[in-house]
Protein 1
Amino acid sequence: MSAEENSEDKKREKLSLMTELIKLANSDNEIKDIEFNFLLSLAVQLGISKDDFKHLFEDYIEFYPPKLEHERIIQFHRLILMMNVDQQIDESEIQYIRELGIRMGLHPHATEEVLKIMKDYPNMIVPPEKLIQIFRTFHN
């Protein structure tokens, strides 16, 4: 694979990941200011241009999960953060995260464990070390 192809794959992966985060934020048919600001800050971290970011709200981007498991776990963590950013968790958001975890190839018991224990942490934010520990426990 050429460097150009790899770069294009990475861009498509990042846009796909942001699309899934936007879908989660919009699962209640409303993107609150705090959710939008969180999405924007993630887009900046991922190096997504403002134009590309704006288009994600209008265009369908095919789901393209990260190839590496640790990157999929990081994305799962972003989903949990997105769900909790407005401090209001809806059952549709939880179901969406479950389904996306499966589509990303993450172990369903690990995702369930994270969803279960997040209530034990301030602002329902599972520390990254704990998240990694949970996924290691269920690693094939």
Protein 2
Amino acid sequence: MELFSQFSLLTAFYVVLGTALGIFVGAIPGMTATMLIALSLPLTFTMDSSNAIALLVAMYVGGISGSYIAAILLRMPGTPASVITTLDGYPMARDGRAKLALSLALWSSFVGGLISWLFLVLLSVPLSRLAVKFSEFDFFSMVMMALALIVVLSKGDMVKGTVAGLLGLIVSLPGVDPISGHYRFTFGVRELQNGFALLPVLMGLFAGSQILNEILAGDRKATKTGGSDERLNSMELPLSKLKRHASNALRSSVIGTWIGILPGVGASIGSAFAYSVAKTASARPDEYGKGSEEGIVASEAANNATVGGALVPLISLGIPGSVVDTILLGGFIIHGIQPGPNLFNDNPGFVYTIFIAYLLANLVMVAIMFFSTGRLSQIIALPAKRILPFLAVMCILGSFATSNDWYSVVVMLVFTAVGFFLNRNGYPLSPFVIGLVLAPIAEKSFRASLMWTDGAILPLAVQPVPIIAAALTILMVVVMQRSNKNAQR
């Protein structure tokens, strides 16, 4: 029972609160789970580490789940994870089947979350035990594989993904050299001696840039919910529907989980991949995109499953599986916890608290969505101008609280502009953030490895883990290039 000693009634309260907030924010187009978690990080400074991470994980679950409401009713997904859901969800709502579409999305989300929780519990411990045996260069090769995969899987242009990753690496350089302990790249600016604080950077890139984008895009007008006049009270689903879509939900959940484990891939790609597989395996592929129940099940089961999948490498290896996990990694660091293989030995109770929090968040999500979808469908028409001023103030106060000076606010504003520029010009934020977070780990591991071999790289490169990591990276590059060529034909 000692393993569960860190999970208390207060922790359970934070899970319920985090899930509810995530659903509320996820249901509003443009207000993503990433923004919510970035804004909430400063509020967790005074909280116990277990309660803080449980709150953030619950927000993650709620934010991904809540986004399907706007995707189905307005064809405006609350987060990118539910973009695929709009393809069939909105046509169903327009045809007067909004309640059925929402019910399918809810139960598929729960199945995806439950399956990925099982993988999280079953894989994290053995993977961490294996990782304990890794050398410094093994970790370096895995971090480089993660960076490469993120660039390869970047939406659109791989060159832009590479540029974004290099920019993140450059931003990580100022501060203290991890080996010599000397200051570097500070350019005489005293505030740069500690580098760029992670929290203001994350708040600027995700929350600040999104707020700026919403302001410039103008206010959203209220839209009728999918043209449907149904009463959206409880989300009941006939047993016959559950049996009919069970195999699709299970298959898509497994796909979403394994896609989520890949570093930096994210829920949107997991959703798209599962949707493609479901369409290929379907007896009615011509219905996809026109209001297919199978399409909603595949999309929502997969995108929720990626949440649990992405937590596996974060907890076991200390490598974030998505952009949201990068912010969660920042939360770990802020609270003095280093995720990775040693976490299971140093603080197993904390790990099991995360396991319980993730499962409880999925149960709470079902309960909230089952009874309150009707009210949430009214929230999605809320004008953005009523929310944005509050969010902007939260960005400023949260950044100031990092170090109690205005320098952090300036950093947040600078990276607000950086994030806005990158988004507007098609440069993905994922490589930038993962490069910023993982570059120091890669540098330290690489330089420590060279110290053991007196500067020789070859003895390190011929080890099994670096060879496997390099082979997987090359394979992924080849597969993605062929996929892009086929798409252009």
